[in-house]
Amino acid sequence: MNFDFSDEQKQLRDSARRFLEKQSPVAVVRRVLEGDEGYDKELWKGLAEMGFTGAAIPEEFGGAGLGHLELCVIAEELGRSLAPTPFSSSIYLAAEFLMAAGSEEQKAKYLPKLASGEWIGTFAFAEGVGEVTPDRIASGASQGKLSGTKVPVPDGEIADFAVVAANTGGSGVRSVSLFLVDLSGAGVTRTPVKTIDPSRKHARIAFDGAAAEPLGAAGEGWSILTNVLDRAAVLTAFEQVGGSDRALEMARDYALERIAFGRQIGSFQAIKHILADMYVSATLARSNCYWGAYALSTGSAELPEAAATARVSATQAFQHCSTNNIQVHGGMGFTWQFDCHLYYKRSNLLALNLGSLSQWENKLIERMRAGNSAKDAA
Amino acid sequence: MNFDDTPQEAAFRAEAKSWIAANAPKALEPELKTSGFGGLYLGSVDPMQAAKAWQKKKAAAGWACLHWPKDYGGRGASPIERVIWGQEEGLYAKLSAPFTIGHGMCGPTVMAFASEDQKRERLPPLASGEEIWCQLFSEPAAGSDLAGLRTRAEKDGDDWVVNGQKIWTSGAQHSDWGLLLTRTDPSVAKHKGLTMFFLNMRSPGVEVRPIRQMNDQRTFNEVFFENVRIPDAQRLGAVGQGWQVSLTTLMNERLSIGSGMPTGFPDLFELACQLETPDGPAVDDPAVRAKLADWAVKASGLRFTAFRALSALSKGETPGPENSIGKLVAGSMMQDIAKFALDLEGHAGLLTDPDDAPALAKFQTMLLRSPATRIEGGSDEILRNIIAERVLGLPPDIRVDKDVAFNAIPTGGR
């Protein structure tokens, strides 16, 4: 059994960590948080130069052709450093959509630009309150024109193009198709929206007869996006695990440094037990993420269950660790000056941006039932 | 990243599998399936006889205490081979319950500290299940604070004379030998005045009294010592070094990975899928789903955490500290799952006879056993302290009794 990353993958993690510690310190995160610029351009350029954006994109399409285990390792470091870039929109979503459903022409057109970071892509999915279901997608497309409003769209203001889920007639899962839309073209209006984590910008995008090119077969949209969301869920779970570990370290360091009642607060069991529980949830999430990484990288039939497991576990862990990081810091953890809130905000953004925790819990149980009946039948 | 055996591991697995297929007591399989949660219960045969018979058979063929040297009744197998054996033994591993403490904790301590003659004499019958061992550590006034124990051993010629009381001794009523931690010098600080021995449980002056537990079973015992004589040759480690010796014992407990603590989750999932409510199966209720999902990711997290530790073993490395979370997570999970399952069962949840209660009363059994799981072998709180101090590097508790002579520590009148 070798349920671990290889030495080469661990070296990649180390080099990603060194790079991000230098290029994405908290000052950079705060600059994006407080500014109007949608992301840190220098950092984004650096991530592309390091080959991180193209890690899982095949060499024939301008990528490094490494694989998804390598992308998982990079994702963990991005989560740890809170890197304020459109990496998740462009790579976990847009590039994965193209690799899953793009024609050869589409792959040749888009993937090299995504790998090089020259273009930014995103996925325009949600339209209103509550879980996105096929029947709640009101945006429609016909004869190459797409209309409707999507909100919130991650990196919607800065993206060059979006994969858009739209209704192409009828109801149910077969009513949804996917389209590639140039966001700088006519019939596209973009407005920034405020979110719980301003270090990751989102927008409202109104489409009014925008030119739309089909991605994948008509009526296959829901099935494709379900698969891509599973893939993105594993990668995002690694970001969440990276963030959990960092929040735990911050809390541990503060517990060692802060003196109250004449002793380090980390010597009180009330504090120790909070930190031990943070370690437990971060460890469970990491182990579940390894399963997700295995399923993602091998194309295993376990992916739907593994992805939902990693997603639920890592969402819980990051929220738990970022919440208790503030608690251990006491009042100072509530200030703008301390960094605790950056992790708290990111953890709550990531808990929602691929669908909420309860939706993924629901998916997990559905999939476990399906898996069990498959096993019973076998 | 994969779950595959190396070629050597695969060969070993195949050998173990075929031996088990040819030799396991298959008639017991249905009863072993329903037996669990805190003891071995077989209706048709005496559980101890069944356990001893299987252990003897394994030992004769070289499948007992696999990681022990051959000279001491083992196989000289690697740690990963021991785990593979455990996976293949599966259900039949439940028959090893009476030997767990002897094999997992007493044996390794004897191996580390006894004389060569003693090892050759005592370890093979322990490996083969002919002799059962218990661990005499906890006392009425020394549970989590083990080093506060008071059972006295005083030197008298070539012997030591022991007086005092132990408690929570699992399996003492069946044991032939015991590993005994005593206080030999009350005038020094509490960790410094301890000494370890092993003794014959049939020695004059040893009295075992089973404790009636809240689940109406009697697996734990009190053990009383009245002028019990132990030869000095049965001392393990130097006089005053008992604490260090006990750490060897406890470290072995933590290294015995791969067995996997039961959580009750697969049983609960099955119940939720099968149990019909007026609105369909319980599993379709969103409130039930949220809870199931929460436990599902914990159970899965424990499983894959164990796989990470196995991967380290497979590469010949020492597993990291992540395995220390197992009992902490599984213990309270089992208790919560039991309560939730009874809730789903409604009025029938209060029935305890397997013939009346749903799911052969397994959740009722679990409910009444699980409080012990959260206490034995390190309480939840002690485990959190261990994670905080040894894994996260937080400072130890301020110990007011640390540098005080043991006999000067306040006792609260006890």
TrEMBL record, chain A:
Membrane-spanning segments: none
Domain Acyl-CoA dehydrogenase/oxidase C-terminal: 219-352
Pfam name, any one: Acyl-CoA_dh_1
Cofactor(s) named in the record: FAD
Keyword presence, Translocase: no
MF GO annotations: acyl-CoA dehydrogenase activity; flavin adenine dinucleotide binding
The keyword Translocase is annotated on this UniProt entry: no
InterPro entries, per database record: Acyl-CoA_Oxase/DH_mid-dom_sf, AcylCo_DH-like_C, AcylCo_DH/oxidase_C, AcylCoA_DH/ox_N, AcylCoA_DH/ox_N_sf, AcylCoA_DH/oxidase_NM_dom_sf
Annotated PANTHER family: ACYL-COA DEHYDROGENASE, ACYL-COA DEHYDROGENASE FADE28
Similarity field: Belongs to the acyl-CoA dehydrogenase family.
Protein name, UniProt field: Dehydrogenase
Organism: Chelatococcus reniformis
Automatic annotation (TrEMBL), chain B:
Residues annotated as domain Acyl-CoA dehydrogenase/oxidase N-terminal: 53-130
Required cofactor(s): FAD
UniProt keyword annotations, A-Z: FAD, Flavoprotein, Oxidoreductase
Any one GO MF annotation of this record: flavin adenine dinucleotide binding
Domain Acyl-CoA oxidase/dehydrogenase middle: 134-228
Record-level GO cellular component terms: plasma membrane
Highest taxon listed in the record's lineage: Bacteria
PANTHER family: ACYL-COA DEHYDROGENASE (PTHR43292), ACYL-COA DEHYDROGENASE FADE34 (PTHR43292:SF4)
Protein family according to the UniProt entry: Belongs to the acyl-CoA dehydrogenase family.
Protein name, UniProt field: Acyl-CoA dehydrogenase
